[in-house]
Amino acid sequence: MELFEAIHTQKAMRRLKPDPVDEALVWKLLDAAICAPNGSNRQPWRFVVVRDPELKRGLQDLYAEGVASVTRPDGAPADARMQSSARYLIERLAEVPVLIVATVRLADIASVTPPGACIYPALQNLMLAARALGLGTVLTTAHRGREKQVRELLGIPEGNETMALIPLGWPEGRFGPPPRRPAEEVTYWDGWGTTRARP
Ligand SMILES: Cc1cc2nc3c(=O)[nH]c(=O)nc-3n(C[C@H](O)[C@H](O)[C@H](O)COP(=O)(O)O)c2cc1C
Question: Is the pTM of this model over 0.85?
């Protein structure tokens, strides 16, 4: 698939089939992830690939608790469609064939760098590669409301922090353009406030 087609049709896919995902495909995504830029090339990422049904059930419970503890940044309720797909994921997370928990080693991160900055580029690589293969993903962080418990469940040692939980599977629905404000509306040229029409 052409890169720009993948970029322009990748969106949050929360309705995923329970059908298995071949391990070779998971490696392909991880190989794409680790090509990403990262501070001083310390490669602070460690990924925990979860396929065990019991661990997935544990993660589903913690994810649901985490969602309940989260306040949306803008305080506004999500639109009805997103709410419904978010609810779907909360109720079926354990049925998703693969859950990828992305962590960083805190010792590898410079104190000036926000921890997520060293791993979200890798996760975007992973999600775009998944899109190119027809696999659905959604970057989630709500489990962080139960960070300690998630680390205990997966045996993640002290000094490492989870940055995202990415459900991975064959999508029920279709990929398509994500709803976004146009770039012209969110871009200023040569200083804040000066917008520009495209030539
Ligand atoms: C930092 C971050 C945290 C997110 N956390 C969650 C989450 O906990 N649960 C969830 O269902 N989606 C989560 N999302 C996905 C967003 O809701 C999604 O990217 C956004 O609504 C745009 O969706 P779209 O690409 O389908 O338009 C998160 C996305 C980001 C970038």
Answer: yes
